[in-house]
User: What shape does this take?
Amino acid sequence: MNQRVQVLIIGSGPAGLLLGQLLHNIGVETLILERQSQEYVLSRIRAGVLEQGTIELLELAGCGERMRVEGIIHSGFDLAFDGQRYRIDLQEMSGGKTMMVYGQTEVTKDLMNHRLATNGITIYEAQDVQPHDFNTNQPWVSYKKDGVEHRVDCDFIAGCDGFHGISRASVPDQAIEIYEKVYPFGWLGILADVPPVSHELIYANHPQGFALCSMRSMTRSRYYVQCSLEDKVEEWSDDRFWDELRFRLPPDAADQVTTGPSIEKSIAPLRSFVSEPLRFGTMFICGDAAHIVPPTGAKGLNLAASDVFYLFNAIQEYYEENSESGLEAYSKKVLSRVWKAVRFSWWMTTVMHRFPDTGTFGQKIQEAELHYLTSSTPATQSLAENYVGLPL
Ligand code: RFL
Ligand code: PHB
Assistant: This one.
């Protein structure tokens, strides 16, 4: 079967769905091809914290209604170390900006529902998706669905297919430069229907390893502890997790932890990764397909949204003003912002985690840095400015 659309989007994660909706709203025809089922995409528990810029983009896409009601505004978070908690007042330190706790699952659900309601088409369980001829002005994508081969011709391909996607993998090695750092630990995360330990997030540095107290609502908590890359989820009973979490928190927070059965438990490795450039002729790479940050700075989903902002503007300019200048500038503009978030996420990871090779000296240096961060206004401002998201 043959078909033609203006923009073919690979991947129905937040990047693909958001780009699809923004384009659909201005009358650009899109088709999204997703390898997994809709249920599978919605079952992935990932990001939890949205920057204001991401919220504004979701609103622009017309998907902000439920988020505005159910999202929880956070004006600060706690840094915990050396047995104490110190509040970072994000709002005061960033000139009025806040964050919102609203899970990626909810963002994805809202985007999927809105796409359906506005007659946007997504093909789930599309197999063997393959971009072709993206070094020409006549790119096309092939895929299989229920054993039938399909071909979609288009003006542009948007590779929004995550770290393991096919778009970046289709580019010859010599045309791409990879920058990567793999960290020697992972995050073990659990989701549980218990009230959060505190009304704000707590990022904890402890000699035994990092811990993070987050949430999805006032009745659903999301917690993480740094773990070894050799650890298996099966080795972590709920009881072991709760004991470890409490051990790594300052006593006043540990006392407030409400435990309960986990409803999800998984281990994620941590890496920093950037591929350059992000444009290959008529194919543009976006979100996790282009870059990965360790989750410590809560930047991954927000970066995917800011990439989409630039790509959407560039494609809009192409169709409405017949200008390619946005498309030409895309890679450079995105990478400039991405590298700043990569730096921030790397730095926050470095300050908060226990590294196997740095010993007690490393721990003392981290504590000195954390004392400095929480006692120097310019240092706190720099942390806040980056955490709430640098301007687009
Ligand atoms: P996604 O979400 O990975 O979506 C890509 C989609 O492409 C599909 N796909 C294909 N489809 C067709 N053909 C193929 N060959 C395909 N290959 C792949 C996939 O099935 C998938 O549906 O990428 P996207 O849209 O760029 O979104 C990125 C975000 O998901 C990611 O950056 C965040 O989840 C990162 N992240 C966080 N980000 C934040 O901003 N704040 C946070 O608090 C935060 N916490 C986190 C996180 C990520 C985590 N993990 C598990 C990696 C916490 C964790 C634990
Ligand atoms: C989450 O709630 O999943 C979360 C929050 C903050 C982070 C990372 C993950 O930095």
